[in-house]
Amino acid sequence: MDHGGPPNAALLGDRYALRAKLGVGGAGVVWRADDLVLDRTVAVKLLHPEVAQDPRTRARFLSEASSAAQLTHPNVVVVYDIGREGGRDYLVMEHVDGVPLDRLLTGEPFGSDAVASLGRQLAAALGAAHANRLVHRDVKPANVLVTVDGVAKIADFGIAQALGDAAARLTTPGHVMGTARYLAPEQLRDAPVDARSDVYALGLVLHEALTGTPPFGTGTAVEIAMRRLADEPRRVDHLAREVPADLAEAIATATRIDPDERFADGERFAAALAPLVPANDGEALARLVVDVRSAAEDATQAREDLPTTEQPTTAMAAALVGRAGDDAWTDPGEDRISGAASDDAGSTRDLPTGVTGGASAGGPPAHAPDPRHRRRWPFVLGGVLAFVGVAVGVAIVLGPFEDAASEAPESAGVAPPTEEVDEEPDEPDEPQPLARVSAGDHDPFGSGEEHGDRVGEAIDGDSDTAWRTSQYRGDPAFGGLKPGVGVWVELEDVAEITEVTVRTPTPGANFTVYVGDGPPDGGADPDDWGEPIGEVSDAAAEEVIATDQAVDGDVVLVWLTSLPPDGGRFRAFISDVEAAGR
User: Fold this and answer.
1) Whole-angstrom Cα distance, residue 44 to residue 288?
2) Looking at the whole model, is its pTM more than 0.90?
3) Which domains does the chain have, with CATH numbers?
């Protein structure tokens, strides 16, 4: 399967020049591109060819995309164009310089002004769509971008639904189309969906923003779904202080179980929120964006300020993490499926349309390198393997469009012996970096998903971006809720894997590295799926797990069993997973 490269050339329709990959999802890849005709930056979603093999799926996608292209509103990510190149469909959209809402939902409650402004803008966008008989069906924080001016924009009207069935076939089994935490009860029942379903989802988003916690708590996807089918979320003015009664009532109305008791559409929801919006509309939202970006910029600057002649110690790395603004990244409880201007339906989800990435888009605390050291242990079949240490792994340099493995240095020439000697065995080949094509989250003992929208950030080669676990209370072992959670990386081909490098901006985790054939099924215990090649306790910023006996496979799984502290709770970030071998 093609997991992200452009079709043959980096120019689509003789017009759109692909410049940088922004994210990979179950349905396609989002690129930042230049429109050579109108001289502007755009975002291009290039669909996986497998997604639209079914003519009905492709027809549905084209119909939804065409409808979305007719929608123009200041709070909607505009669709500019639809095209096809090399057997692959693509969608050209407005490039938004903003931060995805899920990255602003850090566990700290928004103020009432910010929530009223956010809700009014998004409800107005939904109202415009509903007036044109267009239902989004997948309203969630990952599909919302907020600009530095405090303007909220929603993306992907109808696209996730159009591609849902096809994309689901390409990803981990057991995932519900869309984000289960925000689906309306009628969607969970597979009943007809209309504008009121969007109203419900937006109500849950505003509830979470105002309280700082998921409206229906934590647990498995089934448990949360059952709560939603039976109950309505508690009123926000019972959970948060100083919430205006009218705002609490509007959110309560939007989140009624019975669709007939909700606002009929986004326009009516927006009208209820409008009187609550302050005169300086958007200012409170803008401050949130500035705070997140400032934290990321501080982290980058802290890393750049390290003296070039001094090797940073583990203590220095920990200090850097502290300087990176950890408070900006706290989000209690289970994960919110987040990250993108469309998830479509995959466990590997798209990043937000138009997000510029790196510090400008927000991210985890900065990655601080550790000194090079490695401790190698012999590999024992059937035993428990322990590999502990830090090393600088083989770097994979990613160009805009394809992975390129660096060439190994040539061996120095050796003069022939002057007398006959026994020929010594050849030195083993140095392990070579192995190309990566996709990634996914693995949560078989929990809800079945753990920030799957961000798994691409564990293989993008950018230390400022990272896949993350949810934040857990109680103890480092996931609050006693489950034995572990992981992120897997799929390689281009089956290989003899001898080395895996794991980098993290949050040292202190315990994890085991497994190698297997094909991505693990959603409910697979790692011990039943693959072969463990190494175990790390109290991980440093960079760990190299090496084995003297190569293990055949095309998927590497990093299985976390204990999390480092994070603002009074526990959470881990994984910024990069690389494999090497032959």
Assistant:
1) 27
2) no
3) 11-94 (3.30.200.20), 98-285 (1.10.510.10), 373-407+428-581 (2.60.120.260)
